[in-house]
Amino acid sequence: MAYFDYLPIIGYDVRGDKNKIRVELITNILIRVRKKLNIVNAALFEQYFISDGDRAETLAYEIYGDSTLHWIIMYANYMTNPYYDWPLTYFDLQKFVAKKYPDNTNGVHHYEDEDGYIVDNPENRPANAIYPKIITNFLYEEMMNDSKRVINIIRKEYINQILQEFKLLIT
């Protein structure tokens, strides 16, 4: 069942005019449940690596047999924005970086030591110091994008239980 089908219906004055009140029944899209579900056992999840081209809808169909359960995948991973919480394809990442860093996609974003910690500019370091790795703007954004690729998928056998609990919380 689609996410919005679970949300309650409320009466709302759609015109907002004090002299002409007109109440209609609408879906309350402002109600939120933020993963209050009693999910503490890691055995309820499987890890999944998102490849280029994977979408929540296709994964939901592949895993649960129902593409309308895409919101469960987003919900289980604290994702609220399907455009920025989900990893971009490599092509979209290139466009994003070009727009965010115009004329400077390969400029220095920061420096890292051999353990991956951010360090000061190497020009401020002693001559005998080991120089850190340069992280460009594109490499930084690619690492941030790749960090979104491993997600948790609720196992199929627990979906009905999760949906029932969600229904109780949302009403």
Structure overview:
This protein folds into 2 domains: 3-87 and 148-170, no CATH class; 90-145, no CATH class. The chain has helices at residues 56-64, 70-76, 90-100, 137-146, 159-170; strands at 9-13, 23-27, 45-49, 108-112, 118-119, 133-136, 150-154. The protein is of the alpha+beta class and 171 residues long. It is extended and about 70 Å long. 29% of the residues lie in helices and 18% in strands. Helix 1 (56-64) crosses helix 2 and helix 3 (90-100) packs across helix 4. A 3-stranded antiparallel beta sheet has the order 5-4-6. Strands 1-2 form a two-stranded antiparallel sheet.
Write a brief caption for the model:
With 171 residues, this protein is of the alpha+beta class. It has helices at 56-64, 70-76, 90-100, 137-146, 159-170, and strands at 9-13, 23-27, 45-49, 108-112, 118-119, 133-136, 150-154.
Secondary structure elements and their pairing?
Layout: E1 9-13, E2 23-27, E3 45-49, H1 56-64, H2 70-76, H3 90-100, E4 108-112, E5 118-119, E6 133-136, H4 137-146, E7 150-154, H5 159-170
Antiparallel strand pairs: 1-2, 3-7, 4-5, 4-6
Give short descriptive properties of this protein.
two-stranded antiparallel ribbon, extended, 171 residues, three-stranded antiparallel beta sheet, alpha+beta, 2 domains
